[in-house]
Amino acid sequence: MMIALAGLVGFLLILTADARVGNSSQSEFCTETEQCLLYDLICENNYEVRHYDSVKWVSTNVDHLFMDLAMMKAFRRLFNYIMGENEAGIKIQMTAPVVMRVPDKKMLFERSNYTVSFLLPAEHQTNPPSPTDDDVFINDTPDMKVYVLSYGGWMMSWTDQVKTKELIGMLDKHQAKYVQGFHYAAGYNSPMKLLNRHNEVWVLVEGDPVCK
Known about the structure:
Layout: H1 2-19, E1 21-23, E2 35-37, E3 40-44, E4 48-52, E5 55-64, H2 67-82, E6 98-103, E7 112-119, E8 136-141, E9 144-151, H3 157-173, E10 182-187, E11 199-204
Antiparallel strand pairs: 1-2, 3-4, 4-9, 5-7, 5-8, 6-7, 6-10, 9-11, 10-11
């Protein structure tokens, strides 16, 4: 019995190491969930350069005029999935961060397609239960390097725009190459947490990362 238990623990540790979804104690700002998306820090100055391994997420797309309302609608769909609206009928542990793919808007009142994703915990990285909602799907993010700017307060449309512009300004100043057309907004806190909140802007690195 003890051998079997040790084997199971070892297997889960292998999955965690491979998928880089692990114990939140390894992160100083991922404090509200047991598991968090882990990364390798390449360098940092006014922004960070991180490396993320490929991981699985449960995601949904929402077409909307406003980022904040799109997030609310998407969050409800994904929350229903982890609360049991999946083919296995099981509850799935909440993780962090919640990530939104945000397209770069050209006009103020322009509808955009937002993708919101919940990170799947380590035990569901290999074979997650399929969603029962046709608007929810399982997807993988590739192995990637990202430029990251962290900030406090609330992750809202205007704060995301300001911080994205700030990060892009620094990257342009350093002549860094990055993927254009969209960025990611990452949030680590529940709406109930009022102080010491942590949010991030992610911009994908193109070519070799620059960190001065």
